[in-house]
Amino acid sequence: MLLLKHTEGIIEAGCDEAGRGCLAGPVFAAAVILPDNFHCPELNDSKQINENKRYELRTYIESNALSYAVAMVDNKEIDEINILNASFLAMHRAIEKLKQTPQALLIDGNRFKPYKEIPHHCIIKGDGKYLPIAAASILAKTYRDDFMLHIHQQHPQYKWDKNKGYPSPAHRNAIKEFGLTEYHRLSYKLLPDQLSLEF
Fold it and tell me: How far is Cα 118 from Cα 97, in angstroms, rounded to an integer?
């Protein structure tokens, strides 16, 4: 059973990101503030839920949240500031867009760069422990998937409709055969043997 609150009596926003381990595309993050009467037994870490159910849950979350926001940091920014900082920046951008200012942030993971003066709690595997983080994980994942489906149409040979930019064999083979696109993260090790990749 996931918890709704970390600290009673204050407005908390759950934050999570999607796409850190991908070879292509942006990293997305979401921030979600849920009402005190929020109830959704099916909500869990987005990785534990199938794709159709994730989209159903997204609709439910967006209809019932007090406030939610989604933001991204693209692959070029990732290359400039590294993926860890890009994940923090995506979360900051999502928090910035919330209609309501949270009094505390619940962050999935073990590290975070403080946002303004708002206190935060880093919670390892938080998307399997707290509903606001689980909700943020659903939004970040589905919005990123939508983005990857969109750019798949420009570059179908990389099979982003299936792998969403993660390092699947099909994705790595396409990099080897067709080279890189404008969406690839150049700071990543894109192939096991870099010598086989020609820029």
Answer: 15
pLDDT at 199: 43
Give 15's contacts (C-beta < 8 A, 6+ positions apart). 29, 30, 31, 32, 91, 94, 95, 105, 106, 107, 108, 133, 136
Q: For residues 157 and 149, give the distance between their C-alpha atoms in angstroms, rounded to a whole number.
A: 13
User: Going by C-beta distance under 8 Å and a sequence separation of 6 or more, which residues neighbour residue 98?
Assistant: 13, 31, 33, 67, 68, 69
Query: Which is it for strands 67-73 and 120-123: parallel, antiparallel or unpaired?
Result: unpaired
| pLDDT beneath 50, residues of the chain | 195, 198-199
Domains, the chain, ranges and CATH? 12-152 (3.30.420.10)
Q: What angle do CA 61, 24, 160 make, to 5 degrees?
A: 70
- Segment 106-143, tens digit of pLDDT: 999 999 999 999 999 999 999 999 999 999 999 999 99
Phi, psi for residue 195 in degrees, rounded to 5: -65, -20
pLDDT of residue 44: 80
Q: What is the pLDDT of residue 154?
A: 97
Torsion over CA: 23, 55, 37, 1 (sign): negative
CA distance linking residue 18 with residue 180, whole number of Å: 22
Secondary structure letter of residue 130 according to DSSP: B
